[in-house]
Design a protein that fits this description.
heterodimer, A: 231 residues, four-stranded antiparallel β-sheet, 9 helices, B: alpha/beta, Rossmann fold, six-stranded parallel β-sheet, 52% helix, disordered C terminus
């Protein structure tokens, strides 16, 4: 009883019993407490009553649209929301992410992938201030000193490139949409100029990646945005 | 021996005829019953109403649309209890006249409708000129009709009636309507009784009685008319009997089928000749033809006769003849030729009334025909010329006297005389004649017959006066000069006649040439036309040029006629469209120049072939007279046939095309179903198999086997997922639901994403990426193009050996971005290189198919949506190369990566 109270709570919102069953089985085994909701309204109530640490949300709910659910939750809570949907079109993903979702997984997906995303989300909830030094594989970013090292050698970045990298680092593992990045780095005036972002990402990759054609740090989510690989 | 029995069997032709007759009755729905009488007051209307009452009692829906009781009490009594439709009111010269409301009848749609007075002529401006035409339309709508008529109104007896009674009956009905009737009821009372009824005031009001008795109701007249009506009815019964006997193979003496031919010439005798032929044909139960022959030598005269010829031909047609117009140089030869081609047995000609000496100069056509006729009988009919009506073509044909030409001949003679004076000293008078002869020849060639005769006369006089001794007198010393005079005269007459003939022939030839030419051009343009639009363009262009006409082609669309194409400056109002609609529905020519809806502004000809009705051609000719000219009508008929055939051809090819598309779609659907059932089920076999093994606790499964099962199931599940993804993509592409989001994209990122997506499957494979560092950002839909690259890589992985490497190269010049994916697989047979992008095409590999056959066709769809090209080629050193070429626009090409 005491043990279960310490376990992270996950709210699974999906109207398909088969998927509910599958997720509950997969997550229970991984030491999570799983709550279930079948409709958007039930989900909104459950967020209040169960106070989950992570929400897994299906976009196609019988009573209301998933994006609407995200917006309503975001009005008062910053709880991480991972969207699970059979809608594989990029427009849907972008819409959900811009509405405030933290991540997106297209069905079908592997359990390993899901668990990794949940862990990234949990980590962000638990530790609000990111580590000053971010390390992954051979890449090291020291946010306090504004230094970037690849295989121990310092790389010189333009201020924009650095800002871009810093933004990705602070949201490591999370998908950032083009819009979100453009707005953050260049300001609202550049929202319709994604090529500025692409050029800078390309430059960053040439400086950081071993093979820019097969990037391993800055990953492209096609048609959606970018994600920095997380540990 | 079975021959006698066989002989008695009805011939196939007879059976066919009978079947057709049945068909006509069924097709045209309504049955016509005619109550035939011989004079007013015999009780036609009364009998008709009685019959109608009986039908009504039998439960039929009977309506009186137009019944004239003439105030007779008994008739009025019968009318009570019958539904009477209101009559239409037509205004004519300020007076409202009641008419049959044909639209009312068609709207009311009773089973049986009563219409009095079959021979009535409608008020000008009505839909049809004659009531019998109204009735035909009602019948065509499938409504039965009872009607009344007196025998003297029938076309074929019209002239006989006039002969007997001296009264000209103007309201006539074609005899063919009698043939159309399903039943004829003879209404007959003895003339004595009729006269008694007349005197009792039962027929006319007393003031009219005296006039009627004197004019028409004479005992002798009535007897003759009564006999006529009885004979007409009896002939009909006889015909039916014959038809019955023929179909039932009842033996009887059948005469050989006769065919009669009469020639219309537009002369005052033609009409009588045609009526005579009709009667003869009637007696012989023969089919008959009327031809009109246009000859160059008679061209001028025929111009004036055109109206008459047209009337003659229409008359013949209404009397049941087959009508044709021919162009030929010789009337007699053309007649014989036509007769031979149509198996004519008898030719009817009029007895010539030309004077003897003209016969001597040129044998009359009758003689020529008789000489050429061979086995064909020639009937020579004696005819008295019909009285020439004042204002007929003779007075109209008076030409103005060609003063100018006469003046010119005077000048010619003067000139000849003066030349003769000049050369008088060296020429003898006999040779001087040559100069005058030259003047006569010139006059004959240039000025025509009469000026040539004048020239000859004046020339002879001048020659005589000035040059023949004794000079300056008209006396002639040497009688030899008489021959000179005669020679001069003869030469003038002969040459001018020849020239006139040659001219006429040339004119006719030119006209015919023009016709042939315009028909040729039209048919050439129509043959080249592949769709309706080009047909319409060809029609409008050619016909308006040839006939100097404005045209409209109308085709049915749903319930209405729609203008498909129209000449510039021509507009059709609702009324015109209604006429076109009538022509289309009734499949008959209507509008200006016809007897149906003649008040329209255009002539409407239905376009049809043997198998289908396609639309209507509306024609507005330059002059009203042109509508009646056989020349124009013949050309129009030829045009209509050509247009119809062209239109049918296009419709048929459209149908064939659609059938082909349908077939292609069906085979595609079949392929889709096959593919789906195969590609969805195959992965499920492994998945379900593996899962069932793992779930079954009774089975002893080794760890290796368990791992094997799981890997297999996983791979197959992935494959299933890819297939479903492809199907969805294909569906979106097909539904046109793909909305492209064109953005400037980094091609390197594109390659990276495709490789990342295939990460799991690329393990252990080498992929070489050759990418120029200076590739610009390219405008594309990144998501879709990533999908393209994934599909190409997926193919390369599938079809090349595991140990071989795959290469991606990206190049750009100023105009194109080229992306190539190369593998070391077996390649594709040359003949299939095009087909790999077809849906459900699979590279033939013996060990079975792995792909869905959708991947490449999706690629093609996406690349083409980018205005790009994709193709496959075999590399010389082996393996397949797939090339994508995307155009770089100014916007896309310039942003170089720094």
């Amino acid at each position: 009883m005491t043990k279960s109270n310490n376990l992270p709570r996950i709210l699974v919102v999906d109207d398909e019993p088969a998927i509910q069953r599958f997720l509950t089985t997969a997550l229970n085994g991984e030491e999570f407490i799983v709550h279930q909701a079948e409709t958007g309204h039930a989900a909104l109530t459950a967020v209040v009553t169960t106070k989950p640490e992570v929400i897994l949300l299906d976009l196609g709910l019988p009573d209301m649209d998933g994006c609407e659910v995200i917006k309503r939750i975001r009005q008062w809570s910053q709880v991480p929301i991972i969207v699970l949907s059979v809608r594989d079109r990029e427009g849907d993903k972008v819409m959900a992410l811009n509405a405030g979702a933290d991540d997106y997984l297209t069905k079908p997906f592997g359990v390993g992938e899901l668990l990794a995303r949940i862990r990234v989300a949990l980590r962000r909830t638990l530790q609000q201030t990111p580590e000053p030094v971010y390390r992954i594989d051979e890449l090291e970013i020291d946010l306090a000193r504004r230094r970037v090292l690849v295989r121990g050698e310092e790389v010189s970045l333009t201020p924009t490139e650095y800002d871009l990298l810093r933004l990705l680092v602070t949201h490591a593992g999370k998908v950032l949409t083009h819009r979100q990045i453009l707005k953050e780095i260049w300001g609202a005036a550049y929202l319709e100029q994604p090529h500025v972002l692409r050029v800078n990402v390309s430059n960053l990759r040439h400086k950081l990646e071993k093979d820019a054609s097969r990037p391993s740090y800055i990953l492209t989510e096609v048609g959606v945005g970018y994600r920095l690989k997380s540990t | 021996m079975s021959i006698p029995q066989d002989e008695r069997r009805p011939s196939p032709e007879a059976m066919l005829r009978a079947a057709r007759a049945e068909e006509v009755k069924i097709e045209h729905g309504g049955k016509l019953k005619i109550f035939l009488g011989y004079a007013a007051g015999v009780g036609k209307t009364y009998t008709m109403l009685e019959a109608a009452r009986i039908r009504q009692r039998e439960g039929r829906d009977v309506v009186a649309a137009y019944v004239e009781s003439h105030g007779r009490a008994e008739t009025d009594a019968l009318l009570e209890g019958l539904e009477c439709l209101p009559k239409a009111q037509h205004e004519y010269q300020g007076v409202l006249l009641p008419e049959l409301d044909i639209d009312g009848v068609l709207a009311r749609r009773p089973q049986l409708v009563l219409v009095d007075e079959l021979a009535h002529t409608n008020v000008p401006g009505s839909r049809h000129e004659k009531r019998w035409q109204d009735i035909l339309e009602i019948l065509a709508a499938g409504i039965d009709v009872y009607t009344t008529v007196n025998v003297q109104h029938f076309e074929s007896v019209n002239d006989v009636v006039t002969q007997i009674t001296g009264v000209v009956v103007r309201e006539t009905v074609p005899d063919s309507i009698l043939d159309r009737a399903a039943e004829i009821r003879l209404v007959d009372i003895p003339p004595e009784e009729l006269l008694e009824r007349l005197h009792q005031g039962k027929i006319y009001i007393p003031e009219q009685v005296a006039w009627a008795t004197e004019k028409f109701f004479r005992h002798g007249n009535l007897i003759a008319l009564r006999e006529l009506s009885m004979r007409r009815a009896a002939a009909r019964v006889d015909e039916e009997m014959r038809a019955y006997m023929e179909t039932r193979a009842i033996p009887g003496p059948w005469p050989v089928t006769e065919r009669l031919l009469v020639c219309a010439s537009g002369s005052p005798f033609s009409e009588k000749l045609i009526r005579t032929t009709r009667r003869l044909a009637e007696e012989l139960k023969a089919q008959w033809f009327t031809v009109y022959i246009e000859t160059p030598s008679l061209a001028k005269q025929q111009q004036e006769n055109r109206e008459r010829v047209w009337r003659d031909l229409r008359l013949a047609e209404s009397l049941g003849a087959e009508v044709a117009t021919l162009t030929a140089t010789s009337v007699s030869e053309a007649i014989i030729d036509y007769a031979l081609r149509h198996n004519v047995t008898r030719i009817v000609v009029g007895k010539p009334n030309k004077s003897r000496w003209r016969e001597f100069l040129r044998p009359p056509i009758v003689d020529q025909i008789i000489r050429l006729s061979g086995a064909i009988h020639v009937h020579v009919v004696s005819i008295e010329p019909a009285p020439i009506k004042p204002g007929s073509h003779f007075s109209r044909s008076k030409r103005q006297v060609p003063w100018l030409e006469y003046l010119a001949s005077l000048v010619l003679v003067t000139a000849a005389t003066m030349v003769s004076f000049l050369v008088g000293s060296i020429l003898s008078p006999t040779n001087m004649v040559m100069i005058f002869l030259l003047a006569v020849v010139l006059a004959a060639v240039r000025l025509g017959l009469k000026p040539a005769i004048l020239t000859a006369t004046l020339g002879v006089m001048a020659f005589d006066f000035f040059f023949v001794p004794p000079r300056l007198t008209f006396n002639v010393a040497d009688s030899e000069y008489i021959f000179t005079f005669i020679g001069l005269f003869t030469v003038g007459v002969v040459i001018s006649t020849l020239v006139a003939k040659a001219n006429g022939r040339a004119v006719a030839l030119r006209e015919r040439e023009l016709q042939t030419e315009s028909l040729y051009y039209l048919s050439r343009d129509l043959a080249a036309a592949v769709d309706l639009e080009s047909i319409m363009a060809a029609v409008i262009k050619n016909i308006s040029e040839t006939l100097n006409a404005k045209l409209a082609v109308l085709v049915p669309e749903g319930e209405q006629m729609k203008i498909s194409s129209i000449s510039k400056g021509l507009a059709l109002d609702v009324k015109e469209l209604a006429v076109a609609d009538w022509a289309y529905r009734n499949r008959r020519t209507a509008g200006l120049g016809t007897e149906t809806l003649g008040s329209a502004e255009l002539l409407y000809l239905p376009l049809h072939t043997a198998s289908c009705f396609l639309g209507v051609l509306g024609v507005k000719l330059g002059q009203v007279a042109d509508y009646r000219s056989p020349h124009h009508r013949r050309l129009l008929d030829a045009f209509v046939t050509q247009i119809s055939q062209a239109m049918e051809r296009v419709y048929l090819s459209m149908q064939a095309e659609q059938a082909q598309i349908l077939q292609a779609r069906e085979s595609l659907e079949r392929a889709l179903l096959n593919s789906i059932s195969h590609d969805l089920r195959t992965p499920l076999v492994s998945i379900i198999g593996a899962l069932s093994s793992l779930r079954d606790e009774t089975l002893q499964i080794s760890d290796t086997a368990r791992k094997e099962f799981l890997t297999g199931a996983w791979d197959e599940a992935e494959r299933l997922n890819r297939f479903v993804g492809n199907l969805l993509d294909m569906t979106r592409l097909e539904a046109g639901e793909l909305k492209m989001k064109m953005e400037l994209c980094d091609v390197q990122d594109l390659v990276g994403c495709a490789l990342a997506a295939l990460d799991q499957r690329l393990k252990g494979r080498t992929v070489n990426v050759k990418l120029e560092p200076t590739i610009p950002l390219v405008r594309m839909d990144m998501v879709l193009m990533t999908q393209v690259l994934i599909n190409l890589l997926d193919n390369a992985l599938k079809y090349s050996p595991i140990e071989s490497s795959i290469e991606i190269t990206v190049q750009a010049d100023n105009t194109f971005l080229t992306v190539e994916v190369l593998d070391c697989g077996p390649g594709i047979p040359e003949q299939d290189l095009q087909r790999v992008f077809d849906k459900f095409y699979r590279i033939p590999i013996p060990e079975g198919t792995k792909g869905t056959g959708l991947g490449l066709s999706i690629c093609k769809g996406i690349v083409e949506a980018h205005d790009g090209r994709i193709w496959a080629e075999n590399q010389q050193e082996g393996g397949l190369r797939i090339v994508i070429e995307l155009p770089l626009d100014e916007k896309g090409g310039n942003d170089k990566i720094k």
